[in-house]
Amino acid sequence: MKVVFFGTPQFAVPFVRHLNADREIKLEAVVTQPDKPVGRKREMTPPPVKEFAQKMGIPVFQPEKVKNNKEFIQTIKDLKPEFIVVVAYGAILPKEILEIPKCDCINVHASLLPRYRGASPIQSALLKGDKETGVSFMSMDEKLDAGDIYLLKKVTIADDDNQESLFEKLSDIGATLLPSVLRDIKDQILTSIPQYESLVTYCKKISKDDAQIYPEKETAINIENKLRAFTPWPGIYMIFKGKRLKLIDVKELETEEKLKAGEFSPIKNKLLLGTKSGILEIKKIQPEGKKPMSAKEFINGFLS
Question: Domain of 42?
Answer without folding.
Answer: 2-203
